């Protein structure tokens, strides 16, 4: 794995009034790494991700993503990344082709590039027979695969995936992770939030957030060894108990 740092975070915090959602977190992510960003609901991981993708200003601390400062150069950060959210990734009332065209435009691709990429993407996902159907008519698993592929349309250096496999069946989840592996193999960095602890096993390294802090950060194998357990789920439970 490449040791070039593509995300660098130092003492990053986000405060809302009297509440500190993210409290002085620091970590680095290597180029081409699958980095798992774990934590229970309310741990602060979504707030942290919003700062890293340039849509929320940090209260203090610093971070660079793809070489750009998230505070002073958020527009360049947005152009350098892909983003897939579980809650909103595609427009259900547009066709598959229309969605690809729309997001290609947002990502700044030319009409020629969009046409070529649309053709490639539909062939790759074997969606030729349904390319003119509304995305809303697709099964959830297919929507997720399409959303991931669209997030890669402009060949970003980093893709942020926020709970990408939420609600899909185990077979589709495994297929989705195969797509993630294939992309990492090409040198793309994948930053993944998930609450499925078994998925932490698929990551190169994992950070675990508890109440706004990063409480653990290492490879899954090292974390299991450190906490003397057999699964990442047990690591998480031990951490949560220690905090209590």
TrEMBL record:
One of its GO terms (cellular component) is membrane. GO terms for molecular function: ATP binding; ATP hydrolysis activity. Residues 7-236 form the ABC transporter domain. The keyword ATP-binding applies. It comes from the Bacteria. SMART domains: AAA (SM00382). It is a multi-pass membrane protein. The keyword rRNA-binding does not apply. Pfam families: ABC_tran. Keywords: ATP-binding, Membrane, Nucleotide-binding, Transmembrane, Transmembrane helix, Transport. InterPro entries: AAA+_ATPase (IPR003593), ABC_transporter-like_ATP-bd (IPR003439), P-loop_NTPase (IPR027417). It is found in: Membrane. This is ABC transporter ATP-binding protein.
């Amino acid at each position: 794995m490449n040791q070039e740092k593509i995300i660098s975070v130092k003492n990053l915090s986000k405060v809302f009034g009297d509440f500190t959602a993210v409290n002085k977190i620091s970590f680095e992510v290597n180029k081409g790494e699958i980095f798992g960003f774990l934590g229970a609901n309310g741990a602060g991981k979504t707030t942290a991700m919003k700062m890293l993708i340039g849509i929320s200003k940090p209260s203090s601390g610093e971070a660079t993503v793809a070489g750009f400062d998230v505070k002073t150069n958020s527009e360049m950060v947005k152009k350098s990344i892909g983003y897939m959210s579980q809650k909103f990734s595609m427009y259900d009332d547009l066709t598959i082709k229309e969605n690809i065209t729309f997001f290609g435009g947002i990502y700044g691709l030319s009409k020629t590039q969009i046409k070529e990429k649309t053709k490639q993407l539909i062939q790759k996902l074997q969606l030729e027979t349904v390319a003119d159907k509304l995305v809303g008519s697709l099964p959830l698993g297919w929507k997720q695969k399409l959303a991931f592929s669209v997030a890669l349309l402009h060949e970003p250096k980093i893709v942020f995936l926020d709970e990408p496999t939420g609600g899909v069946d185990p077979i589709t989840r495994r297929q989705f992770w195969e797509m993630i592996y294939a992309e990492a193999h090409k040198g793309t960095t994948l930053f993944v939030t998930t609450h499925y602890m078994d998925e932490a096993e698929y990551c190169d390294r994992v950070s675990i957030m508890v109440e706004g802090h990063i409480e653990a950060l290492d490879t899954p194998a090292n974390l299991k060894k450190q906490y003397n357990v057999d699964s990442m789920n047990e690591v998480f439970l031990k951490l949560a108990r220690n905090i209590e």
